[in-house]
Design a protein that fits this description.
binds 2-amino-2-deoxy-6-O-phosphono-alpha-D-glucopyranose, Glucosamine-6-phosphate isomerase, carbohydrate metabolism, Glucosamine6P_isomerase
Length: 323
């Protein structure tokens, strides 16, 4: 798993928006081979959506061949209610980009058969060959989508009763009135998110620092459902400085040092270890390694070696460098 730490909310959001843009462009989607993107709601992704709209307006990104799946939706809230996730997604993103309406998938919280609606959603994802990149946020209790504490880590899309903490947290969107917050939601499961080929979670603010620490420094735990990302082969968490408050200094330094090496390799991506110009094939293999989970198995930089995240001047015992 990679942890990218940025100074504040804006910088972290910008990082994620660039990441999504890059992935879509690299994928080169077409009508028959669309890029399938999972998306969250909440206040956290707003900065990312703003940036994606900017890319679209500047002609730097098109969503014509992007298919989206949203993580969750309240049960029983009219589709056009100002706080429905449907309304949120249209006003924050879909109304401002060139995504075809038929490419947008949101759970219907007013379906007469909610279980059938959840099965339909999973089947639609499967028919498209799965989700390429799932972008998500978390609640302060470490829940992902509406997978509240103690949700099964193998869960799929289903109806969920909201935790009292989540109802309180979301009351801010309902005039601060807990009684107005729906108590049920449809949500993708933890496994639905983890099945995506890449998962990118944005975590910002001091109020999420305990959840971030549980997710990074402790084991996979159903009480902090986002911690399932530890089992993902391509998991990325992007956070701001405030959210790192509960992390150990060593943990923060470790991930920052990995990123430092990563950056220096990207900057030197045309050169081999001895300064030789790399073949296209080597560059491609190196790029795929660079975009991988990290460098903890011992990677080499121009400045020296890094083993398990710490700089050293002697070579690692087991180098996994591929170019
Ligand atoms: N179901 C959503 C989650 O998907 C979201 O991650 C969370 C955090 O919201 P915010 O980004 O506003 O903190 O809110 C809700 O619970």
């Amino acid at each position: 798993m990679r942890l990218i730490i940025r100074q504040d909310y804006d910088e972290a959001s910008s990082y994620v928006a660039h990441y999504i843009r890059e992935r879509i462009i690299q994928f080169a989607p077409t009508k028959n081979r669309p890029f399938v993107l999972g998306l969250p709601t909440g206040s956290t992704p707003i900065g990312v959506y703003r940036k994606l709209i900017e890319f679209y307006e500047a002609g730097k990104l098109s969503f014509k061949h992007v298919v989206t799946f949203n993580m969750d939706e309240y049960v029983g809230l009219p589709r056009n209610h100002p706080e429905s996730y449907h309304t949120f997604m249209c006003s924050q993103l879909f109304d401002h980009i060139d995504i075809p309406k038929e490419n947008v998938n949101l759970l219907d919280g007013n379906a007469t058969d909610l279980d059938a609606e959840c099965r339909r959603f999973e089947a639609t994802i499967a028919n498209l060959g799965g989700i390429e990149l799932f972008f998500g946020g978390i609640g302060p209790d470490g829940h992902i989508a509406f997978n509240e504490p103690a949700s099964s880590l193998t869960s799929r899309t289903r109806v969920k009763t909201l935790a009292y903490e989540t109802i309180i947290a979301n009351a801010r969107f309902f005039d601060g009135d807990i009684s107005k917050v729906p108590k049920l939601a449809l949500t993708v499961g933890v496994a639905t998110v983890m099945d995506a080929r890449e998962v990118c979670i944005l975590i910002t603010g001091a109020h999420k620092s305990v959840a971030l620490a549980k997710c990074i420094e402790e084991g996979v735990n159903h009480l902090w459902t986002v911690s399932a990302i530890q089992m993902h082969p391509k998991g990325l968490i992007v956070c701001d400085e405030d959210s790192t408050l509960e992390l150990r200094v060593k943990t923060v330094k470790y991930f920052k040092s990995i990123e430092h090496v990563h950056q220096s390799l990207i900057g030197k991506e045309n050169l081999g270890l001895q300064g030789e110009v790399l073949s296209e094939d080597s560059k491609r293999r190196r790029r795929s390694h660079i975009s991988d989970e990290g460098w903890s198995e011992g990677a080499i930089t121009g400045e020296g070696y890094i083993e398990e995240g710490y700089h050293s001047s002697s070579p690692p015992k087991r180098s996994r460098l591929r170019s």
